[in-house]
Amino acid sequence: MEKLKNIISLTIDGQRITVQSGTTILAAARKLDISIPVLCHHPKLTATGACRVCIVEVNGIPVTSCTTAAEEGMEVITASPYIENLRRDIIDLILSDHPYDCMVCERAGSCELQELAYKYQIRTPVFRGERRIYPKRDGNPFIERDMEKCILCGRCVKVCDEVQGVGAIDYAYKGFQTKICPPFERDLSCEFCGQCITVCPTGALVSKPSLGKGRQQDIRKVATICPYCGCGCNLTLHAHKNEVIRTSSPKDSINEGWLCVKGKFGLSFINSPDRLKTPLVRKNGVLVEASWEEAFTYTADRLKQIRDTRGPDAIGGLSSARCTNEENYLFQKFLRAAVGTNNVDHCARY
Amino acid sequence: MSSQPIEIKVCLGTSGSAAGGEEVLRMFQHRISEQGIEAQIGRRCTPKKVGCRGFCSRDVLVDIIRDGNKTTYQSVTPIMVERIVQDHIVGGTAIAEWTVTDEYASFHEKQHKIVLGPCGEIDPESIDEYIAMQGYLAARKAMTRMTPDDVIDEVVRSGLRGRGGSGFLTGEKWKVCRREEQHPKYIICNVGEVNRPLAEGNPHAIIEGLLIGGYAICASKGYLYIRERYHRSVERLRIAIEQAREKGFIGPNVFGTGFDFEIEFSFGTEAFICGEETALMESIEGKRAMPRVRPPFPAVQGLWGKPTVINNAETFSNIPIIIGRGGEWFSSIGTKESKGTKVFTLSGKVRNNGLVEIPMGMSFRDIVYGIGGGIEGDKALKAIQVGGPSGGIIPTSMLDLGLDYENLAKVGSIVGSGGMVVFDEDDCIVSVTKFYMEFLQRESCGKCTPCRVGTRRMLELLTKITEGTGGDEDLRTLERLSGVMAATSLCGLGRSAPNPFLTSFSHFKDEYLAHIRDRKCPAGVCTALIIFSVNEEQCKGCGLCKRVCPAKAIAGEVKKIHLIDPDRCIKCGACFRACKFKAIKKQ
Amino acid sequence: MEKVLTKILDQHRKEKGSLIALLQRIQETFGHISEENVAWFSRMLDIPESRFFGVITFYPKFRTSPVGKNTITVCCGAACHIKGADKLLDTAREALGLSDDEDTTADLSFTLQKATCIGACNIAPVVILNKQVHAGMDPVKVTKLIKGYEREEFLGYL
Q1: Which pLDDT tens digit goes with each residue over A176-197?
Q2: Residue B194 touches chain C, beta carbons under 8 Å
Q3: pLDDT in tens, A193-203
Q4: Of the N and C termini of chain C, which has fewer Cβ atoms inside 10 Å?
């Protein structure tokens, strides 16, 4: 009941909407399917208000919709010519300090800045001048950090801090020279969860292993579940021809789009020549490829043999958190009922 | 013989000390004790230090008060002390040729010293002297006879507006914070550059103002935010806090009212952005001083997320006066919307550089010519930059404009923290604007796009113009940039950053165009646009220019006309300054 | 070394000071803030090193390389600027034999700094040598100040 009191109504581009107090103008507009461009905003991170692209007009004054809370009776205009011109110029300013190399950029096709440049048709910026140049590249094995492409939205800093709890990077220096970097500009040395790549709106942070392995439009996306642990994160494999070159995760999944180092960078085994593709059975001390049929029969025979000669308690079973509940249920049932032992355990028992 | 003691007041502000005030004071102490002056003239004779009284261009200033008559000596050096002691203190005759001239009187005459009044009069390190001039009476009155709301009402009635940044009504700000139910609350005093003389000359007024403010909004903790580099200010404030604590004016149970109040220093480091309230709070919290988005406003959610009031030291210095003499009295000074006085550091090409306090509404003409004594070397006044780096540039045509919040806003400037720099005909407006932009882009925190990239782009364009490579389209780009920055920057720094350009461009368009279309710098400042040559009629062939030229660009035999090789000339101007016959032309 | 650091840490914990206050204390003690010291305090306080680096590089006062025994600061505020602060800076550079990207002499005797307005506009241009403010400076006075100081220092050793 308390919450009902805090309902407020406002109009956005002439449409009325009621929202909880505390809702930002941006969130309210999205409810109405009115799109407002953003760069620094990320729904899972605290507001920054740095890029200024999401400005809207309230009483003739531009305010950032991602940080301004909706108020009772507010009248918001999201795309007046005045606002659109300002927005265009802000994007123009960002582009004036951004390399013009979309043609070779890994992010081309999924870059938020490129999208906005397209939307506002900025071929060459009106504002021109010096651009930040950083010759030295980060030597870490996973994350390509091209800080010349960084628009200082701060999403990577926040995801590292607020979601991952690591704080491997932060803003450094100030003014035009502001740069996001590891302490003392050392090479990145962190968990390499790659969350920063996930939230980066531009090509400033991309996955190193996938560099040069395929353009966005040639990528086939395959939905799957991460094979590593019991969290069962939803995973989208990005395959080029028949090779998985990188992964991502849908935002509306149980893992909210976040992945860890394994899900992000640990899938290269798929194309490894050493990968096991059939069961192996040891014959005369040597592992030999076998069919599933043969392997199952061999295992069943051996288990029976051991149970009959040594008793059921000579057998124990360890299951995996990676398996589903149903599979785990069946496994313990198998050991208790079929084998006849209580020696069953699970790696995530605690 | 009268037994009234003799007082010797030596100015030991930043400027007084820089001019050797400490040695002068030591010399007085030494002479007086050594020669047994007190015994000789049969009365007490106390040399003491006082804060800055504003007339800094003639430091060290020394007041001798003998038999109720005050004589002020200017430009005193330790060597002069001996004679002052002998002739004046012992002999009773002032040394006329060393005393201040009429300028000193006209400098002070037009000022209205409310907060600066005690500066230069009392010993800033003595709480007793402050108390003797009714110090801490206002705090006592507020806490024992007024409710916090009464105090706020009195401040509202006074019409006092913040003496830093935006000029928000102080009382209203306090009211918002007072209404907040969250505790604890904090009150912060920002001691900025221009507040240094206040902290050095009368630190107790700041402490008292902070105390009253704390009581009004129910904050039990006050912060003094000050750059560590301001050693003297820090020292004087530290002494003042200790003395006030000893007297029970701060600490637990102030004046027996049950109100507890503590003051703590928070040492900032050099960063212009810390003048912005939310950046300042970030800095106190130990973070990078990058401004926060608002709302929420600091009065609702400020330091450590708690309701917080921030004012600067000048605002707080006004508080004891308002409580003591009443808001009504205070509001009788100034203009309709801008009450009271404002302290400015008057500097640049004006004759009397110094610290001045003027009633709101005084015209620029009165400030520059009345108080400032006109332009150095009788050159022509060109413009006045008011309000600090992001203030506006005011042309001579607006000399009669009354200085207050409204008028300055109208002409695209701000009162700011109170910088006032005077330019004369030798200053190039484009170059001056470029200087301010250089400062602002260096001080931009880098958080939001318009300010971070915009200030840099503006600087680049202004640089182009001063180097003679600008075009008409650059002016349009500058205007467009100004529009985006003013409308969309996150904080006041970015929003006001275009002010110097916008104001100077609207008043000095011709000068911009001269740089662009004629490739000329009319003031002869922009080195890329000037050429040094020898005026053959004036040249005596003395060879001085040849000797001082660091680039070996001047050739000529003795007693024959010299010539400057324009390809070699690095335009340093050494020859121009050295020539005794005005034979070097600058075009 | 560890002892000194622990002392700073204890005091910091006692005062519940901010990161800036801690960095100020480290710099006061060692003259600069080294990478090793940051690593140590980061470990002890469980604050990421990146946070330290961010604050250090934001405020021009903090430095990560050793500072000279004496510090000369040239104020470059507006009033000082129009009265020739740039020339003072060049002069000081020349007198100290510093190149454009150096701020400290090789023998660590002097560090040259720029300051934004120090609030002494009325006595511009000013130069601050250690803690002493020198008013109304010109290139000749700056050279004298530096040379004089060098000589005094020299005499001091005799």
Answers
A1: 999 999 999 999 999 999 999 9
A2: yes
A3: 999 999 999 99
A4: C
- Give the pLDDT confidence of B90-146 residue by residue, as tens digits: 888 888 888 888 888 888 888 888 888 888 888 999 999 999 999 999 999 999 999
Rounded CA separation C82/B531 (Å): 21
C6 with C34, same domain? yes
Q: Which of C81, C121, C132, C138 to mutate to test the interface with B (most CBs of B within 10 A)?
A: C121
Q: Model pTM?
A: 0.87
Q: For chain B, which residues lie within 8 Å of any Cβ of chain A, measuring from their own Cβ?
A: 288, 290, 293, 295, 441-450, 452-457, 460-461, 477, 480-481, 483-484, 487-490
Per DSSP (E only), the strands in chain A are 7-12, 15-20, 55-58, 61-64, 75-77, 143-145, 170-172, 179-181, 205-207, 219-225, 234-240, 243-248, 280-283, 286-289, 317-319, 344-346
CA–CA min distance C51, chain A (Å): 6
- C54 to chain A, any CB pair closer than 8 A? The answer is yes
Q: Is B99 helix (H, G, I), strand (E, B) or coil?
A: strand
Which of A258-272, B77-91, B206-220, B369-383 is predicted most confidently? B206-220
| Nearest by Cα to B212 from B165, B167, B160, B266 | B160
Contacts of A174 in chain C (CB under 8 A): 57-58
Chain B hits for A128, Cβ within 8 Å: 457
Q: What domains appear along chain B, each with residue ranges and CATH number?
A: 6-100 (3.40.30.10), 127-331 (3.40.50.11540), 341-424 (3.10.20.600), 429-517 (1.20.1440.230), 531-586 (3.30.70.20)
Q: Are residues C127 and C148 in the same domain?
A: yes
Within 10 angstroms of residue A314's Cβ, the number of other Cβ atoms is: 12
Instruction: Flag whether the ipTM exceeds 0.85.
Output: yes
Is A49 close to B448, i.e. CB distance below 8 A? Answer: yes
